[in-house]
Write a sequence for this structure.
């Protein structure tokens, strides 16, 4: 909802990063609009979404940028990261390569992003945990610990931990800036 602009105390830009098809766009649509798409439609992705969140007595307007499919072509530009205070760094627990590629994404975040950017590591598709898990929860936890990140497993499909992931990021940004 864009109608509270004047009343907002803060505008926080944050970004979604991670390999193609890990579920970035669905995490955002779940959080912003409570919607989920079974098909992946990268080319018609929105560029960003807004959500107003109250933290204590402050109203925060969270502006969350999605890649609109550019990650497929390794064409994410520095302007995507510019001014971002937070990032959800997403992998797919059913595809090991998406976890291995986190190094590359972390490198990019640290190269282009703010030095005190809040990064939340997200292992998405936890609904497929029993049938096709390729990344143990401990692997996510230990990478997060080594890199100093928060960590959660989510399911955009079943709406598990999605709000928690975004709110953790937004609350931590609020702690950093206030
Ligand atoms: P993006 O390329 O990272 O933006 O990924 P998308 O959001 O487009 O999702 C890629 C595919 O994974 C789509 O077919 C989604 O329906 C599916 N997907 C996304 N999140 C989940 C989830 O939590 N569980 C399952 N089972 N599928 C998901
Ligand atoms: Mg997408």
């Amino acid at each position: 909802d864009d109608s509270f602009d004047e009343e907002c105390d803060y505008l926080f830009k944050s970004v979604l990063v991670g390999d193609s098809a890990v579920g970035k766009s669905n995490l955002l649509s779940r959080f912003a609009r409570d919607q989920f798409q079974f098909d992946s439609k990268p080319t018609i992705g929105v560029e960003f979404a807004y959500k107003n969140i109250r933290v204590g007595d402050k109203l925060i307007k969270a502006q969350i940028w999605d890649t609109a499919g550019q990650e497929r072509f390794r064409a994410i530009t520095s302007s995507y990261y510019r001014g971002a205070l937070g990032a959800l760094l997403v992998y797919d627990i059913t595809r090991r390569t998406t976890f291995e590629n986190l190094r590359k994404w972390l490198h990019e975040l640290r190269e282009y992003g703010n030095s005190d950017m809040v990064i939340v590591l997200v292992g998405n598709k936890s609904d497929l945990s029993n049938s096709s898990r390729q990344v143990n929860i401990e692997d996510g936890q230990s990478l997060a610990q080594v890199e100093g990140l928060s960590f959660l497993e989510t399911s955009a499909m079943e709406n598990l931990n999605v709000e928690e992931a975004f709110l953790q990021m937004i609350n931590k940004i609020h702690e950093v800036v206030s």
Remarks:
- The CA atoms of residues 36 and 157 lie 6 Å apart.
